[in-house]
Specification:
The protein has one domain: Roll (Dipeptide-binding Protein, domain 3), CATH 3.10.105.10. It has 9 helices and 12 strands. The strands form 3 sheets. Strands 1, 2, 3, 4, 5, 6, 7 and 8 form an 8-stranded mixed sheet that branches. Strands 9-12 form a two-stranded antiparallel sheet. Helix 5 links the parallel strand 5 and strand 6.
Length: 321
């Protein structure tokens, strides 16, 4: 049982249950209650499906992309204390949408499975498109665009995690992996300008890179704000360039059908089917979900997570006498 030292206070709490005030000072004693809840936010790596036009290559990369590397990278960059905890996931629809999502089952990393996909491509005849793409990336780096402070004080952190992922890419015969760091304050404007380039081909430097970091939180407790936004041709946050895939028309039709369902349980099953459909083609690589931890003194009442997780709802809280 944690010691109830400050009965009328609300605090953020780290994964280690250390309690901090809002200035980041560690309190000498602990509060008596800790909450652990989902925020609804999921972090993804969006592959450029035109540049990486091979489903097998994307799947191989899925299995070597250890989510713990990127969770650790994010944690070290943002620093501690923090009440945000990254939990690895392999689902596009976050678990906060419990009706629409599958239970999380983490199978990564799996280098042997990744190597098997690469072998399948190597066994293809010369001149095959997938094999040509693999040969290109056996001789050229893949780049991962993500937003973070470009402060040189963070260079050691960036180099550490870039090296870890680069080693994983090299382990399956690819040339390697590099970060492209963009300023956070202009991140999505830069991405959109690249997305709307007419030429997204493999060696065009002005298009989206091979991978792009994106994040998304669901609204309305319904995956109608996840799958269509992230993967539909008209989605506001679709950075995958999956619109040239031969399965896209079938996928769009299934989205329309799911939107029009009035039975919520049947709609939930449709979203799960679409999640699996997209993952089977590896249009999007889920990395982790964000969870919050928080604590409050025993006199604090009615502090509840905001709708679909997130921070606590302060407006309804009060302190008893």
């Amino acid at each position: 049982m944690l010691n109830d030292s400050v009965k009328n206070a609300y605090f953020i709490v780290t994964a280690s249950n250390k309690v901090y005030d809002e200035s980041g000072n560690i309190l000498s004693k602990y509060v008596d209650r800790v909450r652990f809840h989902k925020t609804g936010f999921t972090s993804y790596v969006a592959p450029n499906c035109i540049k990486i036009n091979s489903e097998k290559i994307r799947k191989a990369i899925f299995y070597i992309f250890d989510p713990n590397f990127l969770i650790g990278y994010s944690a070290e960059l943002t620093g501690l204390p923090t009440n945000k905890i990254g939990i690895p996931t392999e689902n596009i629809i976050g678990s906060s949408l419990s009706k629409d999502s599958f239970p999380t089952n983490v199978t990564r990393p799996d280098t042997n499975k990744a190597k098997d996909y690469i072998k399948q491509i190597n066994d293809l005849p010369n001149g095959d498109n997938e094999k040509n793409t693999l040969i290109y990336y056996q001789n050229n780096y893949m780049y991962y665009t993500l937003p973070f402070n470009s402060n040189p004080n963070f260079n050691n952190i960036r180099n550490k995690y870039e090296s870890l992922i680069d080693s994983a890419f090299k382990s399956i015969g690819l040339k390697g992996f590099k970060f492209e760091i963009l300023p956070s304050n202009n991140y999505y404007n830069t991405l959109y300008s690249r997305l709307y380039q007419n030429d997204q081909t493999i060696n065009n430097p002005n298009s989206l890179k091979e991978f792009t970091r994106i994040g998304w939180s669901a609204d309305y407790d319904n995956a109608i704000t996840v799958i269509p936004e992230l993967l539909s041709y008209f989605g506001a946050y679709n950075f995958t360039n999956n619109y040239e895939d031969s399965y896209i028309n079938e996928f769009e039709s299934k989205i329309t059908e799911a939107k029009n369902l009035t039975d919520r349980n049947k709609q939930a099953e449709a979203w799960k089917e679409l999640d699996k459909f997209a993952m089977d083609r590896m249009w999007l690589i889920p990395i982790y979900e964000i969870y919050d931890t928080s604590g409050s003194g025993s006199l604090v009442r009615n502090l509840i997570p905001s709708f679909i997780g997130g921070d606590m709802s302060w407006g309804f809280g009060y302190v008893t006498k």
